Task: structure prediction
Amino acid sequence: MDTTLLIMAAGIGSRFGGGIKQLEPVDASGHIIMDYSIHDAIEAGFNHIIFVIRKDIEAEFREVIGDRIAAVCAAHDVAVDYAFQDLHDIPGQLPEGRTKPWGTGQAVLAAKNLIHTPFAIINADDYYGKDGFRKVHDYLAKGGEACMAGFVFKNTLSDNGSVTRGICEMDAQSNLTKVVETKNIVKTANGAEADGVALDPESLVSMNMWGLTPAFLDVLEQGFVEFFQKEVPQNPLKAEYLIPTFVGQLLQEGQLTVKVLRTDDTWYGMTYKEDVPAVKESFRGMLEKGVYREELFADL
Result:
């Protein structure tokens, strides 16, 4: 079955010292996290890649990864497309003074006209591991309608500062019932805590790796209209249309069933500049163990 990977790469990490954190090399060959995600996606069976970026970073993005990935994908019969997230592409008036992007929901809608198959969504600057791609792809390929890779909480923490995580609540059949957005999470000797409250390090969290179908896009688009009617007037400069929040609303209303697919792979991200050395060391270890080859795409 044809399947699409949507990579959300429109953001520049403000906590990362002003650079485009998605383009930071993580190995001696100059590969970035996105290279590994694309490798794992192609290996899992995805055959269409869509980059969602901003128009103003297109030249640098193509130079650092886009053109190289296009050549790799062409050799493996994988299509590549670009979609552009635009602050002005909204179902309403742009509030005066608004400069903040509209969030992951709008990022996905930017690619709506390019998505014709079941699709997965990931963040550009996050490393998810091979297992998540396999499980999401296989769930969609077998006719599943909505799923989410659930990462073990302790495998997603940073040593260098607080993080926000969506902690999953599920029923006995591993269907998602709620995502509890939890802020100010810090690592502790026994696991993790948020604002002094201990958290279960074995619980599953959402790292924004979703599997969905094209039918979801019409619902998402209607939700964006309602977001502009209800949320934007209350907080015109900062309101964000976020996939986890919208999925949570659909779950509450009984309009969507989302299967949580557990993965024990370690998630790596570069939330803080201080995370970079540890992330690079992790990739070095995976290369030494043979999880990947130095010629990254040679085994596809």
Observations:
- The helical segments are 33-44, 58-75, 104-110, 130-141, 214-230, 243-252, 276-288.
